Please model this.
Amino acid sequence: MPSGEFCVVCGRTGAALVEGVCATCAADRTELVRVPEQVEVVLCPTCGARFARGRWSGAGRSGVLSSEDLVPFLVIHPEVGLRSVTWEERARSSSLREVDGTALVRFRGLERTVPVHLLARVVARTCTECGRRSGRYYTAIVQLRGEAAPRTRRPKELRDRLEAVWAALWAEARSDWRAAFGWREELPEGWDVYFTETLAARSLARLAKQRFGARIVESASLFGRKNGQDVYRVTFCLRFPAATLASAAPAPGGGAGAAVQRYP
Ligand SMILES: [Zn+2]
Ligand SMILES: [Zn+2]
Model:
C-alpha cells in the first residue's frame, strides 16, 4: 500500500482500504445483520415440530425458540459471514416471545458482535403427523414375528426379544422414517407397529431383512380413494430367524423398548 493513504473516515494509515474506508469504519457504517420487526414461528403444541419452508420437521423439540427457528429470519449483509448466534428469551407468553440475540460475525477480516432483538409470534398448529395419529390414521403396519414354527418360546419372551431387535433397527432408522411412527400394539405372537407413511414402513422392513435376515411377506388392502386414486394399506409381516432372536438379549427393565416408548 502506498504510504500516505489514509482512511477518509478515521484518518488512520496502514490499514487496508476499500473505497478509501478502513474495515473498522466500514463495519460501523454497515448494517451487518438486519432483523425483521416481527417474525412468526409455527409450532405443533403436541410434538414440538416446526413448520418452515413448506414442511414440518423437528418433532420432539422443546417450545423454546433457538437458532434453528430464528437464524433463517436474519438478513445477513453479503460481505458478512455469520459465525454463531446465542439467544435469550427476555419475556414470553405462549404466543409472543421477545428474544435478545448476540450474533458473532466476520466482516472483511474483522470479528464483530452484533446485538439482535426480535419479537416472535408463536402460532400453535397441530402438525400433519399428530393430526393423523389422533385420528388413528395409518397407511402401513409392520408386524414383528418369530418364525412360523416351531413355536419354542413363551409369548412374553418372544415379544421381549422382538422388541430388542426392533430397538436395534430403530436406532439405525432415518429420522423421516421415525417421524412416520404412529403407535404399536402388543399381541400374543409379537408386535404390530403402525405407520403413517408406507415408504417409511417399507424402508424399515428392508433394513430388517438386510441387517437381521428377516423374511418379508407384503400384503395390501384397499381402504379408500383419495384424489381419484385407490389408496391401499400395506402390511409388512417380518419373520425373524430363530438365531437372530436367540442372540437378541432383551435389555433389563424393558430398556430395549425405550426407543419406541418415547412415542405415545
Ligand atoms: Zn477508518
Ligand atoms: Zn406434532
Observations:
- The chain has three domains: 1-30, 31-128, 136-261.
